[in-house]
Design brief:
The protein has 278 residues and is α/β, with parallel strands linked by helices. It is built from 11 helices and 9 strands. Strand 4, helix 5 and strand 5 form a beta-alpha-beta unit. Helix 7 crosses helix 9.
Length: 278
């Protein structure tokens, strides 16, 4: 968020000023969607739309980059849906693609061995946990390390960067490859606030978002590989399934979430899936 705010404030030369208030210490994560819709804040970086607007998560269940989403038409369709159904302006992606991985305390031989295990639950991935036969235990991010350390859960779905920054590699022993989905963030603006911005400044904002999509893609791909290598160097072992089990594992991860989108959006859902390359 900082590079975005800094570039806008510098280039707008006082015509548009974005004041960065903070994150979850200002407004709780699950309260942020209501805050942006109600105009409490004008713009924010948002992650999960599972319960309120499943279509919003279509950008996560794809291997397309931000620029590729614009080329495929996924961005345009999703932006139209956000405006029409959520009264929000979708600007684009805020962070490059970082895969999510399953981290475990004990080794398994097939994805079917996940059945009956306990993981940290979240509305963002409870559907895939159910598809894998995993029991979700709801808890905030800050408690995952302790829960793993104390054996309250058997594993967790976490992006590489979050594992490294939180130290979770200290309390797990295995990671399943390949990863799936993408851990990223979306720039969303209250639609009334956006419509009050003059057109030349709207164009400036969009130019910055598109610039950052490219820059952060290049940076985050490298950074993600570095973090994963550091984690593996710390002693984490990689679990790889047979080709057929790997295919089932990846297909289940994606299909379980697209099923939710298709059910919630029977008309636009198939179009979103097609433009997402799924």
């Amino acid at each position: 968020m900082h590079p975005f705010v800094e570039r806008i404030n510098e280039r707008a030369k006082g015509e548009l000023v974005i004041n960065l208030l903070g994150g979850i210490e200002v407004i709780g994560g699950w309260d942020q969607p209501d805050a942006i819709r109600d105009g409490v804040v004008d713009i924010f970086l948002h992650y999960d739309d599972t319960s309120r607007f499943p279509a919003g998560n279509s950008v996560f269940y794809t291997d397309l980059t931000g620029p590729e989403m614009r080329e495929s038409g996924l961005y345009t369709l999703l932006a139209e849906m956000y405006e029409r159904e959520q009264k929000l302006k979708y600007l684009g992606m805020g962070v490059g693609p970082t895969k999510l991985y399953i981290w475990l305390q004990d080794s398994i031989e097939t994805p079917y061995d996940l059945i009956g295990l306990k993981f940290r639950g979240s509305p963002a991935w409870n559907d895939v946990l159910k598809a894998f036969g995993i029991a979700g235990v709801m808890m905030p991010d800050a408690e995952v390390y302790t829960a793993l350390d104390q054996g309250l859960i058997d594993g967790a779905i976490i992006p590489t960067t979050s594992v490294w920054y939180s130290g979770v590699q200290e309390v797990v022993s295995y990671v399943i490859e390949p990863g799936f989905w993408r851990s990223s963030w979306k720039f969303l603006v209250n639609l009334d606030s956006w419509n009050r911005v003059p057109s030349h400044l709207q164009e400036l904002v969009m130019d910055v978002v598109i610039e950052l999509e490219v820059e952060q893609l290049e940076r985050d791909v490298v950074k993600d590989k570095e973090f994963m290598q550091n984690i593996l160097d710390s002693g984490i072992e990689v679990i790889r399934f047979s080709p057929s089990d790997t295919q089932w594992f990846v297909d289940t991860a994606y299909d379980s979430m697209w099923e939710k989108i298709l059910k919630a959006h029977p008309v636009e859902g198939p179009k979103l899936k097609e433009r997402a390359g799924q």
